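Risk register update: the risk of archive-format incompatibility is retired. Evidence:
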Amino acid sequence: MIRFPRALSAPFAALPLLAIVAVPAIGQQSSRKPATTNGARAPQAPTAPGTIVDPATIKVDNAPWLFKGSDIPPDPAWNFGALPNGLRYAVRKNGVPPGQVAVRVRIDAGSLNETDEERGYAHLIEHLSFRGSKYVPDGEAKRVWQRFGATFGSDSNAQTTPTQTVYKLDLPAATEANLDESLKIFAGMMSEPGINAQGLAAERPAVLAEQREAPGPQVRLSDARNGLFFAGQPLADRSPIGNVKTLESATPDSVLAFHRRWYRPGRTVVIISGDIDPATAARLVVKNFGGWKGTGPDPADPDFGKPDPKGTPTAAINEPSIPPLVITAVLRPWIYRDDTVIFNQKRLVDLVAMRVINRRLEDRARQGGSFLQAGVSLEDVARSANGTFVSILPIGDDWEAALKDVRAVIADAMASAPSQAEVDRETAEFEGAMRNDVETARVEAGAKQADDMVQALDIRETVAGPKESYNIFLEAKKKGMFSAAAVLESTRRVFKGDAERALVNTRAADAGAAAKLAAALTADVSKLAGRRARESKVDFKDLPKLGSPGKVASREAIADPGIEKVTFSNGVRMLMYANSSETGRVYLRVRFGRGYGALPADRPTAAWAAESALVQSGIGKWNQGDLDVLTTGRRMGLGFDITDDAFVLNAITTPGDYADNLALMAAKLAAPRWDAAPVLRAKAGALAGYAGFDSSPDGVLSRDLERKLRAGDPRWGPPTREEIEALTPQAFRSLWEPLLATGPIEVDVFGDVKADEAIAAVARTFGALKPRTEAPVVAPDAAFPAHNRRPEVLSHEGAETQAAAVIAWPTGGGTDGIAESRRLDILAAIFGDRLFDRLRSVAGASYSPSAVSQWPLGLKSGGRVLAVGQVAPENVELFFKLSREIAAELVSTPVTEDELRRAIGPMMQYLARASSGNQFWLLQVSGGAYDPNRLNGARTLVSDYMSITPQILQATAAKYLGPEKDWTLTVLPKSAAK
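Archived output:
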């Protein structure tokens, strides 16, 4: 597997389908936080022999097993080994971030390895393995890794998919001793997890809670899609979460039988990439896993089947909370192929063909066609099928017209070759991205390398490094493989297969929808393709003129670790950190205006549409398509965000591109274009997904909670349906035109730049702007709702078994209280840890309850400590009872030193790792050109956390967590909310 830039192999997604519909990926995955409980070690299943051996007694085969059958040169950074028991490993040195070691233990078994009676067992074993195992008591693995500095749920986690189960640990401050202990724990989890009556009784409710909390409409859509596309294959009904019947009937013996059958050394790979000697890592793998032996005969791989040409071709479902949606597939059997150079080169041509079609579809959607978004993709699905998939999100309910228009674009691509200019454009995008991967390879994170290895193993391919991948691409280019004729051949080939399927979702029940779908798939679309768009001729020299370069009024060093502040004669200020530690990477962040503070708090505005429409509306005489052409093959960005006290343009770019990227950003402020189409598209997208908010407690919270926590302030949270329908291009422009033109500007340039060159680049762009007029702060504060004795009640239209509960306490805001905000971070971490232990691990009432502190630095108020849990309706009161008990305990009794250390330790390790990157410092000090408190806060970052004591934390809890201050909310099924 060469390194395909993932963003380039996906559809163009201005409004991603998954963001609106949230359909689980084909071959639905389950990613979760591992389980933990309090208590003594539970009785174990019959004890297996120990896994630990003297590594000197084990003969290891160091041949690069991953590259067997491949002519791709093995990446010399990876060190391979195969043990006599069949276990394999791959280890490598990586110092990004410093001190961290990423460990992945992959079991080559997932939900497709289950029988009908075992559905959900692979995922259930993942849960049970984290509870307790051979070498650690029940619930202790979490605490061990917390003491090592690992953050629970992010640094330690696991994932079950149809084809694999992967256990993950990103171990900070790794030493030989704590890596040894971690591998020992993993070895015990793999060989002898706590599969017993006590563990099963405790963990089964959490698994059922996870299933209960899943969004019902999206799950039903995913199940319908899998059932249709993969009819007759195990994948048709093998979601990793399983079903209630098989989970409730699971016994220790039946679960243990699955474990013994599939958890075997020969199906296990240990992957390590991190800041440790590879020889040491390999020796520790051999030591801890070398004595593991499987139980019974090694089973044959299950047959995942192949697409059935005679299966039902079309189907329809009716989910009113999901927008009308059409998904089609051309399916072929998945066939193992050796991962060779030519195989990857041909796949690159296929991906270029997909991108040509996707760009045409996106161009058509931008023009206001019949669909909001459409895209094609080529995927290997769970080693069950190779497929070409098409997803279509229509505007409104006329899915038939949208399907025909998309089919017309695809038919046109199959009828005649693209222009060579189209092909060259997509090839240039690949080349630019792959070249950037080479230039930034030195700063690639070890965790990413470990995850890439897991992915390669899952699809039975190799891992090629950035340089080798780029060389394979260049060789294909040299051989002339990226020709218009080759792309046409690829297009025709990938839209042929053994089976074709199509699924439509409609808002209203329609018994004839499947027949209409079949008709729309065969209708004549030859007259609908339209003319192919011609590529515009654009050049950076034609950007709107900004004026003469600004002069530097002052330049000073202002903060560690070497940050400078520059002020230009027009008033623009710059923060700069010229640091080449992240080779080939430059972070840009432009803060302008007053953010939420500039928006009125007493009436709704069109601010919500900016994320989807402001940048997309163009610059000067250029529309969004022109800007795409302008940046072809380059690493440039123009992201937009609204923060508490500033609007923000941001990008991750390169030393060769950042100056032009700054020019684009400055031109956006100086000469914005106001195309209507992006605004109308944002409006259509918001309306398309709006019904989904009512379909679950989580949907209701995502719509209403933020605005509720701000006492109804319309600046926050998604807009109401009425606010969306009121949006017009004129209203959008009337709001944003003055906001772009007024208020202070701070330009932050952090990364691999030369200081004088970076200053000159800002001088030519933002320094050349006319002096800005002042922007008033309209609403500097954020309110918090008044204490309520009974929870406010909202309702949802989803399953009767779903509910949610929220409790929050007001805190504060502003940069004067940065130290206080950090004390609240630790307080919330301990609160969340206790809530998780009691509500999930002990009571089994919620899958992932959480607590967080949010302190707005850019506002004078509006902070809160917030706890949320999705529970069954009958457990809402339990959530509030436990939450208030925890709050009262934190007020009345100091936390223990161990509990405090397990909260602060992971935070310190996170800071140690993150602070090696330039983006970390950018986010810490951004805004500091105008607010010195942010700079001071960066200086005291470590000391603020390390000075926290149990007594200080108790005083903080007493200050904020009083029962007379809390505000509560529940989301209940509509029938129960009455």
